[in-house]
Design brief:
Blueprint (H helix, E strand, L loop, with lengths): L1 E2 L2 H20 L3 H12 L1 H14 L5 E5 L25 E2 L7 E20 L9 E10 L5 E3 L12 E23 L4 E8 L11 E6 L13 H8 L4 E6 L5 H5 L6 E4 L15 H9 L4 E4 L1 H12 L21 E3 L20 E9 L12 E8 L1 E3 L6 E7 L9 E4 L4 E4 L9 H23 L2
Parallel strand pairs: 1-8, 9-10, 9-11, 11-12, 12-19
Antiparallel strand pairs: 2-4, 3-8, 4-7, 4-8, 5-6, 5-7, 13-16, 14-15, 14-17, 17-18, 18-19
Helix pairs in contact: 1-2, 1-3, 4-8
Length: 451
């Protein structure tokens, strides 16, 4: 836990007071005389004491909790290490807790305007974390007031900044947890800020979206996370399932730098379109850089062209007289007369393994690459044309069948790639594209912040 500004005030008070407090507690005349001499030079003692207090582990608060798991400690979230998951760096409630609380009692009242919290036991999946909670403050240690701006129901974020509407004074702060997900809650780090508009630095972080029908996490698409970390060691991440990928989730501070969308295993007539509603809204807003692979790329094109309100079909169930999403087709089928069920790909022609792709524009994500390059693919579906407002930036290279290999929303760092940079097989190329994409996302965010 970090208390900005308050810590320095406490240090100054201790530095001024310690020599005189010691003087009053010592009865030995010689020792009192020596302390008095120190008191006369209290500015020097103050400087030394402040240095020790500022640099050392002297706590600014006393920490407590409803219960604590073996090896963890209520003081764990106060060590300044935001992302450590080691037990001695976090607070974790004891097994069996259905609700819980964590509390910090300060040596003197603090001003509170904002709170940064990092929760959860897993590195990038929301688990062992509070679902429903509220932060509370007290002036007397007995009566607690809810900070309504911090009340959250159905939490899904590992990282969150709460901003109060006005600054409040607090002798103690309590995290009251009313519902828990998947085991005892873990608080990795908490920081308190004295201003409601405090500038809270947070590292760039990315969200990896599992776009498949299987909502279990970690899941498909998690492969983007180690790839991002391989080119930016400071990047942190969270993985979510498709239904959580909404404008509301993205808008919570701290906001992600970019999102990565995985492939999908079902054909589009088998997909619940409502699960893609948030993706459609984010795509239309075009405020979040996105890199989508394979089925995720096809999904972006489909929602861009048709939305989620009208039914979707697939090439196997499509009525040629009245196609629903003809932008999506299959590469082809093996010779013979086949009656193919939706989702049956046994007779489909696939492109698997390294394939040749050719850049058709000098897009920043292809910086440092030759005009033709090899990248991993695994698909039988493809897009037939560009959605309105999209540009083609890569097409099929020598020997490759799928023509629309990478699309980009015009003027935005939103990409739909038929190939897989997150798949093992072409590591150096994948790192190059990932580094270029993160660089483009950062540049776009800076440009938006200056508008």
């Amino acid at each position: 836990m970090v208390v900005r500004n308050e810590k320095r005030q406490v240090n100054q008070w201790l530095a001024r007071s310690l020599p005189w407090v010691a003087y009053g507690l010592v009865n030995d005349p010689l020792k009192r005389q020596r302390l008095a001499m120190c008191g006369r030079h209290f500015w020097l003692i103050s400087l030394l004491t402040a240095a020790v207090v500022w640099a050392g582990p002297t706590p600014l608060a006393r920490y407590s909790a409803s219960s604590t798991a073996s090896g963890a400690a209520p003081s764990g979230p106060s060590d300044g290490d935001r992302f450590s998951r080691a037990l001695d760096h976090v607070w974790k409630a004891a097994e069996g807790a259905t609700n819980a609380w964590w509390q910090a009692d300060f040596v003197s009242p603090i001003s509170l305007g904002a709170i940064l919290q990092v929760v959860g036991e897993h590195d990038f999946v929301f688990t062992n974390a509070p679902v429903d909670y509220v932060w509370q403050t007290t002036q007397d240690g007995e009566h607690w007031d809810d900070l309504q701006e911090t009340r959250v129901v159905h939490e899904r974020r590992l990282y969150r900044i709460h901003r109060l509407t006005k600054v409040v004074k607090a002798r103690a702060i309590r995290w009251k947890i009313e519902a828990i997900r998947n085991g005892p809650p873990v608080l990795r780090e908490v920081e308190f800020y004295p201003q409601t508009n405090a500038v809270i630095e947070f590292p760039d972080w990315v969200v990896a979206v599992n776009m498949t029908h299987d909502s279990r996490l970690p899941g498909h698409g998690q492969e983007f996370i180690p790839l991002a970390k391989s080119v930016r060691a400071d990047v942190v991440a969270q993985q979510i399932w498709l239904t959580d990928f909404t404008p509301e989730w993205v808008a919570i501070e701290p906001r992600p730098l970019a999102a990565f969308s995985s492939g999908s295993f079902k054909d589009w007539c088998q997909v619940d379109r409502n699960h893609w509603r948030g993706t459609e809204q984010l795509l239309r807003a075009a405020q979040l850089p996105i890199w989508a692979s394979c089925g995720g790329a096809q999904g972006l094109a489909i929602v861009a062209e048709y939305g989620v309100e009208q039914p979707w079909d697939c090439p196997h169930c499509r009525d040629p007289r009245s196609p629903k999403i003809p932008i999506y087709t299959h590469i082809g089928h093996l010779p013979g007369n086949h009656t193919l069920a939706c989702g049956d790909y046994d007779e489909c022609i696939f492109e698997r393994g390294p394939q040749t792709v050719r850049a058709v524009t000098a897009d920043p994500v292809f910086a440092g690459l030759p005009a033709e390059f090899h990248v991993m693919e695994s698909h039988c579906g493809q897009l037939e044309w560009l959605p309105a407002g999209w540009d083609l930036i890569a097409t099929a290279g020598t020997g490759t069948l799928t023509k629309l290999q990478c699309l980009r929303v015009h003027g935005r760092p939103i990409y739909a790639a038929q190939f897989h940079i997150e798949m093992a097989g072409t590591p150096e190329l994948s790192k190059t594209i990932m580094a270029n994409f993160l660089k483009a996302a950062s540049a776009w965010r800076r440009s938006e912040q200056t508008k």
